[in-house]
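Lecture notes, unit on protein representations.

Consider one protein chain, 84 amino acids long.
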Amino acid sequence: MGKVITFPSKSLSTKELIKLKRASDQLDDVIRHSIAEESIPTLEMVGLLAHRLGALLANLDNKEKLWEVCEQVIIEKAFPSETK
């Protein structure tokens, strides 16, 4: 499948950041709708997202480095008081 992001990601242009923000907002809308309107339990949604992320990572170059970034982001978001 190829590379999803370029390392370091700080090199992204404003145009690329806007695209990523728009995609992020769309994902948030789908997740919120699924939990609130479709009554999908949050734990099941987390499992679904983990499954989809794993499937995406399986087809990428440089997946070890990308996994390190994903792991760090998950830890920082899940345990904010413990990572500062």
